[in-house]
Amino acid sequence: MSAPFPTSRAPAAGDALAKRNALVLACAQAFGGANPAIVVSLGGLVGQALASNKELATLPVSLLNLGLALGTIPAAVLMRRAGRRTGYVVGAGIGVFGGCLAAFGIASANFVLFCFGTLIAGLYGSFVQSYRFAATDAASDRFKARAISWVMAGGLVAGVIGPQTVIWARDLIETAPFAGAFIGQAALALISMAVVSALRPTPVVDAPKAGGRPLSQIVSQPRFIVAVVAGLVSYGLMSFTMTAAPLAMIGCGHPVGAAALGIQWHILAMFGPSFFTGSLIARFGKAAVTAAGLLLIALSAVVGLSGITIGHFWITLILLGIGWNFGFIGATALVTECYRPEERTKVQAANDFMVFGSVAIASFSSGKLLNVGGWDNVNWVVFPPVFVALGLLAWQRQVKAVVPAE
Q1: Cα separation, 100 vs 98, whole angstroms
Q2: Entry pTM
Q3: In whole angstroms, how far apart are CA 206 and each of 8, 58, 128, 210, 299?
Q4: What CA–CA distances, in Å, run from 187 to 93, 95, 158, 241?
Q5: How do residues 355-396 score in pLDDT, each as one tens digit?
Q6: 23 burial type by CB count under 10 A (0-12 exposed, 13-18 middle, 19+ buried)
Q7: Burial class of 142 by CB neighbour count within 10 A (0 to 12, 13 to 18, 19+)
Q8: Fold of 211-406
Q9: pLDDT in tens, 63-78
């Protein structure tokens, strides 16, 4: 099915510009995507050491997700006015500052400063998350899903770079344990700044100079609502379950090392399929791959409810990661059907604000639900949102089947 709106460029030979920019953004994702991995790995440990109220130990990680949600709209405004490349350079600069501030907070034993550092790291993350959309700016309809997959594949490398930075840099400053890892985080953002500087602009060829339709009109489209709900459910449930899983494993008597390995397998499962997700979308369609991802997320909850051995937890996390990959990339590709070229930045920002706002809420609530209701309740919560999202996808497919294309 063809896109509902004209593309923003003439059909370049073989999508040459789109492929080049997608590779640049995949490299930037490899470095920028390590930013949250470092905060998630160490935020709770540092919080436990610095916070006077130990119930606030996970606050730095929650603030990372909050910053990610809050930064989406300002990032979009900046990129709309100054362009993608300038916006991403500024975003990387914010990442450098956030890493340095977090390291200084640790060195000065100041929990508030450390929290501000992780919040700013989240603001940087809002720029990184939009790389997947930027990869489609110059892409033909045929290449868009693959461009998104290429960028997401950079996250697989980030899943290695982030933990390795923690391992090799955490003791860089002997008097301030873990501060070195956040200096490493700042260094990775600096490298990302150099990478995104190689991004080439994608001029809009045939789009009007006006800003397009009002945002309220765009986001009220049924197909946009379906795409957002699918992305929100995929990412929100992944974050919700992933946050609770290591705590649940330790609570069930499993060693910390087993929990860490479970998260490592989860990250690999999240980004590994990106090498072929775009091809699956090209063959089976965006909605079908998105639905498959949601079903895998539901299956992960079934496994989680069936036992509490290390194997059960690991399989749950692996299925959750693959389900997130299919669901989130598919939903992202669905969003690209909903806007005209001149509308892309504001629509992408609205999508990410809603999706990552849900992630922040999931992060805040996951640990509390685990403490109150246990691991079983965490898994039972997965099913209703998945069924709602699947129902909306089925409804949208039926609407497309009965309503003739314009």
Answers
A1: 5
A2: 0.77
A3: 6, 48, 27, 12, 45
A4: 10, 9, 14, 30
A5: 888 887 877 777 677 777 889 998 999 999 999 999 999 998
A6: middle
A7: exposed
A8: Growth Hormone; Chain: A; (1.20.1250)
A9: 998 999 899 989 988 9
Alpha helix locations (H) across 170-221? Answer: 179-196, 215-219
Rounded Cα gap, residues 62 and 73, in angstroms = 19
Residue 277's nearest CA partner among 129, 149, 155, 147 is: 149
In the chain, residues under CATH classification 1.20.1250.20 are 13-203, 211-406
Q: Which stretches of 51-130 are DSSP H helices?
A: 59-82, 84-107, 111-129
CATH 3.40.50.720 fits 13-203, yes or no: no
Measured distance CA(310)–CA(334) in Å, rounded: 36
CB 120 within 8 A of CB 98: yes
Q: What percent of the chain has pLDDT over 70?
A: 91
Which two tokens mark 94? 């914010």
